[in-house]
Amino acid sequence: MMNQLRQILLERIGSGGPLSFRDFMDAALYHPEHGYYRSGRKRIGREGDFFTSSHVHAAFGELVAGQIREMADPFTGRRSSFWIIEAGPGEGHLAADMMRALRPVSPGDPARFRLGLVETSPALRRVQRRSLEKAGCLEGTVWWESLDELAGEPARNGCLVANELLDALPVHRVVIRKGRLREIFVSARDGEFVETEGEPVGKEIAAYLREEKIRLEEGQQAEVNLGALEWARATARVIGNGYWIVIDYGYPARELYAPERARGTLLSYHRHRASEEFYRDVGERDLTAHLNFTALIRAAERAGWRSCGITNQMRFLISMGLLERIESIAGRADVGSVRERLALRQLIQPGGMGEQFKVLIFRRGEVSGDLRGLRDPFHAGMVGVEGTA
Ligand SMILES: C[S@@+](CC[C@H](N)C(=O)[O-])C[C@H]1O[C@@H](n2cnc3c(N)ncnc32)[C@H](O)[C@@H]1O
Prior knowledge:
Blueprint (H helix, E strand, L loop, with lengths): L3 H13 L2 E2 H10 L22 H4 L2 H14 L9 E6 L5 H10 L10 E6 L3 H13 L7 E3 L11 E8 L8 E6 L2 E10 L2 E7 L5 H8 L9 E4 L1 H13 E13 L1 H4 L10 E4 L2 E3 L10 E3 L2 E2 H10 L3 E7 H7 L2 H7 L6 H13 L5 H4 E8 L25
Parallel strand pairs: 2-3, 2-5, 3-4, 5-10, 10-14
Antiparallel strand pairs: 1-7, 6-7, 6-9, 7-8, 10-16, 11-12, 11-13, 15-16
The chain binds S-adenosylmethionine.
């Protein structure tokens, strides 16, 4: 079958010239009709291309909900709701698992929590609606296409959650040639996409690298995710008193841009196989790059967030009670329990989800930074703001 997006992009390059890699990736993932996240095909889970934690086991969402419950406790008795705003909810499993766990336990309980979902893809919004309906948590949920839609409204009390959103934002790619910063563009030759290099578009990329004191080596490639910084600013406008939980893979700047990462971190995922085939089956493969946590923390703090800490998913989930969940089914030998134990372990797998995913928590307004999920489960005390656990 002809790949229509490929055709559209080749024509766009033919008439308008090379695209920045950022614009190419934006179209590959988010073209309104043919983009990877827009076409309505199954992308996440066993039949898709990659797993997210919320597709591994519902305990992930339930334990994140436990952290949100602690965050919301000081707001008990207030008239206004405590908002949970999830950005980039995928198929809605995390939202459904969180809301199921936070549902009022008896009919007399006040509905303290309200859910808002920020999603650009109409196809995924439909899937999210079905997931929430199935979990019995659809009532009262609102959707926004972007946080900009909340611009005129008063800031809310609540918690924003972004699990694997920021790594799915389109990135600029750069390379050093003869000591100079060049940007990677996507051009076309004989009907195929080819990479070319040129002057970076705008001054922001160079300013970003300067600010982070990043010195790339000759020939070294790297990604620059300006969109993540924009999210840090946008989220700060939405929350008055509350938190932002970011769960994603990434490194501090000095590790992300270290010389041994000569080709950067951009990867393409197709049927659970990672590769560097960025231009193959365009619109049918996920593209993703690791985050620069140093830049994210700096942008968030500049926007008015305060960092509570950074830990990894293993420590976060263990602090929130994951081992007790495993323990509760330890003696059972039926297939269901064995599968469940394996899935729970996968969430905290060293070298896998447990260590690759980091959990960053930011706060704003009159709320405490002393949070259970950031306590170190192995040593007494809290994990540091700078530490990468
Ligand atoms: C990798 S998926 C997230 C997975 C999901 N959080 C989970 O737990 O399974 C990325 C999601 O971010 C959404 N997304 C990407 N850019 C967005 C944007 N600018 N605003 C809102 N959602 C966006 C995608 O459509 C998709 O739902």
